[in-house]
Amino acid sequence: MLSILFFYFIWKKFSELAVGYNKSKHNGWFGILVYVGGSLFVGLLLGVLNEIFGWGIDFENNAVIRFMDIPVGLLSCYILYLILDKKWKSEVVEIDSIDNIGNSTDEVN
Predict the structure, then answer these.
(1) In terms of pTM, does the model score above 0.70?
(2) Where are the transmembrane segments (predicted)?
(3) What whole-number distance in Å separates Cα of residue 52 and Cα of residue 100?
(4) For 2-19, how does the pLDDT look when each residue is reduced to its tens digit (9 = 90+)?
């Protein structure tokens, strides 16, 4: 149930970012996919390392392991948010007036 709440707010932040840079608001799904993918990746990595090194982690009855996906998922979303913000910010070309429509960016600046 808690993850549904996270999904909503992650989707909302990524949608606001996309609309702010004139992209489709459906880019909000990137955030949810990265949240789930980051959690899945770290879970699989932890499981493989548990088998290799024989740590003996009880994955079924350990609340810390179960709730570890929250910070991992949020961290992966934050990293993607920063990457998309930087990428989309570099793509924005500001035109000062309507008279400059159709001119190349070299002529405008």
Answers:
(1) yes
(2) 32-57, 63-84
(3) 63
(4) 888 999 999 999 999 999
